[in-house]
Amino acid sequence: MVRAEIITIGDEILYGQILDTNTQWISLELDKIGIKTIRKSSVGDQRDEIVQILEEAQKRADIVFITGGLGPTKDDLTKKILADFFNCPLAYHAEALADVTDFFAKRGRELSDINRDQALLPTKCTIIPNKQGTAPAMWFNEQNTIWISMPGVPFEMKAIMGTEVLPRIVTHFKLPVIVHQIRKVVGIGESYLSDLIQDWELQLPAHLKLAYLPSLGIVKLRLTGFGQDKVQLQQDIDAEFEKVMPLIKGFVFGREKDELAAVVGQLLVTNQATLAVAESCTGGYLAHQFTQHSGSSAYFQGGIISYANDVKEHQLGVSKAILETDGAVSEACVKAMAEGARKQLDTTYALATSGIAGPDGGTEEKPVGTIWIALAHPNGVITRKLTQGGTRIQNIHLSSLTAINLLRRYLLNDLAE
């Protein structure tokens, strides 16, 4: 296994003024060619701290990627620090000087002394041209490690990586094959999922590793295979997922890039069915989950955001008696909302939500996070009560997700009413 470390340099990253997207992009590209990223670090524009992190990286990585600190201003320290670190002077590099001169000439601008110094490079480096900017990248083969220093500007870094760095790495190292597969799971928490599949997990072959990647309401199960034969690894991973599928079939809705609402949308299309929504506490977020996906017009008819009780009554047909006796946050209300939306928009199915998203509005009887959802279908209405304790946006998101999953399970005949 070839081990990589990625270091980003710049005070602006630590201050939060610039979002570091470089490390994520680099590690994704390295994964594609079989290199394992073992550490990601960010460091400010302080010489001692940069040197310290270089010394640490040298002890644990086979290849070190550095982005940032190659600009022409005094706070850009990377070149000078690398020259000292590798015990060599800075000198003008003829090819780099020609490139930066040409860069300014093509733009009708004069080459200043500060920009000319972009061609001042450590003598031990191999220059990597930068076609998108003035600061060349540098390749060092020193201290049993490959070091690659690149500009921090993302579009410059990506161009250099794609055209120059990655092809050189592939020829320099004998790389293993790394294969990932993901199954996306909804409707079960990470800890419950782990308990459910622990026997299967313990019996996985040594060359396959399982990871749980949780997000709000969704857990990704990722199997990673390490070896030399990509096809065989794919087959091994498929076989293992087939073994565990009987345990988790009801919770799995897709793979790598599948989104829950889009998956449900395709089920609706397959069934030649249509959908409407009636939303109170989710305020349009449920509708957005469907309409954000291209092609949703094939099944999604529309929705009514009935935030006020008057709208529930006059647009969805919720009776005044329900609103006065049971309240807006009740099974009776959300059931009537779903039925009203299905009737008003003439659809096969309708989803409805009503609840207390918070942070205010809760009572002892109905605390914040009390949500009712309903699914109206041709033969009746299914309701569910949720008791959640998150923030407002978490409650809105989880309520929408649960409603969509309720419809998914109904469409798959995987639901006990």
UniProtKB/TrEMBL annotation:
Domain (MoaB/Mog) ranges: 5-172
InterPro entries recorded: CinA, CinA-like_C, CinA_C, CinA_KH, Competence-induced_CinA, MoaB/Mog-like_dom_sf, MoaB/Mog_dom
Pfam families: CinA (PF02464), CinA_KH (PF18146), MoCF_biosynth (PF00994)
Classification via CDD domains: cinA (cd00885)
Cited PANTHER family: NICOTINAMIDE-NUCLEOTIDE AMIDOHYDROLASE PNCC (PTHR13939), NMN AMIDOHYDROLASE-LIKE PROTEIN YFAY (PTHR13939:SF0)
Family, per entry: Belongs to the CinA family.
HAMAP family per record: CinA_B
Identification of the protein by name: CinA-like protein
